[in-house]
From TrEMBL:
Keywords: Aminoacyl-tRNA synthetase, ATP-binding, Cytoplasm, Ligase, Nucleotide-binding, Protein biosynthesis. One of its GO terms (molecular function) is glycine-tRNA ligase activity. This is Glycine--tRNA ligase beta subunit. It is found in: Cytoplasm. It comes from the Bacteria. It catalyses: tRNA(Gly) + glycine + ATP = glycyl-tRNA(Gly) + AMP + diphosphate. PROSITE patterns: AA_TRNA_LIGASE_II_GLYAB. It comes from Hydrocarboniphaga effusa AP103. The keyword Protein biosynthesis applies. Belongs to the class-II aminoacyl-tRNA synthetase family. Its EC number is 6.1.1.14.
Amino acid sequence: MPLDLLFELGAEDLPARFVAPLSKALTDGIAGGLARRGVSVGSALSFATPRRLAVLIADVAAQQPDQLQERAGPALAAAYKDGKPTPAALGFARSCGVAIEAIGEKDGKLHFSRTQPGQPTAELLPAIFEETLKQMDELVPKRMRWGSGTETFVRPVQWLLCLLGGDVVPLSRFGLESGRISYGHRFHAPAAIALSEPRDYEPALRKAHVWADFASRRDNIRKQIESKAGQLGGHARITEDLLDEVTALVEWPVVIAGDMEQRFMRLPPEVIVSTVETNQRYFTLFSDAANTQLLPYFITIANIESSDVGQVIAGNERVVRPRLTDALFFYEQDLKQPLSAYVEKLAAVTFQKELGSIAEKSARVSKLARKIAALVDDSLVADVGRAADLAKADLVTKVVFEFPELQGLMGGYYASAGGEPQAVATAIREHYLPTQQGTPIPSTAQGRIVALADKLDTLAGIFAIGQKPTASKDPFALRRAALGALRILVEGGLDLELQDLLEQALIAQPAGNRAEATIDDLYAFCLERLRSYSESRGASAEAFEAVRASGVTRPLDFERRLQALLRFLPSDEAKSLAAADKRARNILRQAGDTPTTIKPDRFEVPAEHALFETLQRVESALAPLRAARDYGAMLSELATLKQPVDAFFDAVMVMAEDAQVRSNRLGLLARLDALCREVADLSLLPG
């Protein structure tokens, strides 16, 4: 009869970042260990709070099925000599615990098999528990040792519970023996809870003020926050990461609100959000879902139902107040001089020891940004240059020193306060964008150009000093920089030659490394990021390679070709042309020299005339489409080749004995092949 299995590990408060992954490792370890041993199991429920990790598995078989054990021994040639068993054969029999007569043969080797009765599930659990602990330990780089024992875990373990049905499964670890005892909330219900069977676990803990299920506790916290925010006339800013962290910090969530003094509203909202959310794990409130206006309130989740909530609120406000006071002081001090006054201090800040100071990097970025702006629109040069000159100045301000995550944002505020044009301030504010995959690119042309120049300079500099990323390490976040640069070019509509920009950035580096291999490596690195970007948006590997083979070096042009090709691929014409071009390419490769002249008077069958005329018409039609970069229309025009190409291959033998006839036909295939490379190399597509 199947039984329910409950395992719980109780500990001192676990670090929030480890609660969810350790819970998953526990569930996967116990359920997976049973499955590997052939024990059938039902559904598994995970439970996780700061003080406990638990799993409840339904319908666990009480007994492991019988196990067939098989062993292969030495080859027969080595097992017998003159018809008698050799020491190798006898040793194999001894290792199996039987006489040599009980050993069989299979696939040219000695073979032994026997069926072992399955073990009771309870007897398997200690080994499964040990395997699971090892998997959990791998998630935690630094573990604790406590008391006089030598065993380690992320935090000291206080109790172990293991029930299979109504029986305790004996486990020994951390100087503890497993039992049927759990514990409720540390303050509301500290007494021991004796469980009769596994299914009593969740309701018993709920009565003891422990909301054990992580997912439903998280949903409840969200609802409490949203309800309290509505009562305060605002909208809570709830990030998934902060919600997960807060959920991992409490067992019995209770929402509490607090006030911020009106004087702190003079601060930029990002400073307040960073202070309240990052440092205190509180939630901020805004006037609406678009986070238009910050409100002077915060919401926190307590782990207790206090008898004097006013004292708790006052304590929370008392913790926030000095942090915001410091932030306001730093902000007002920074505003006493314009942003441009901080630029000279950048010379004392090192960017990278071989690449110079931040001031030197800023000078390189400014020069490259001006060149890019001139390529895009001459009217942008002045604002772009000014923004690039000031972009890094906020790194030496007091607020950014205290809150490094606000770099760029504060520069934008200080630029506006100092009277800089709005375009300059916005470009400074956004020049670190996109910060990661999925985040937006800068909203203005000026911001995109400065951000692009900054990322290209970083890429070129680090490659120039030979510090390019490895498979496992990317300390300068070059993959993110390359992806950001590509997204700016593609999504920002900047039709620029990437290879040329990279070369200009490389030339400007103090390392002076302009080896061709460096430029080639850097460009290839960016192309691999373009591949990842394209495939993440639904492009197939074949389609990407087909466009790449066309030799295009403008990412925006690459993207336009790729999207046109993806729309074309499902058609019958695409498959037919791909197959025809593969065939033509193979014939041309085997023929060696590619003829360039076609003599219509040497055509022998109507199919040759038809293909020749269609090729001429298509070549003429493609010229204006090529100039307009209308790749969709170009592929539609190429699709008209399907019928004459199919008829040509059906009607003629290309490698005719007559040299002039053969040359003519090879010339037709060469012109077909050239057209099939116009947008992308169609021979690389499935067909």
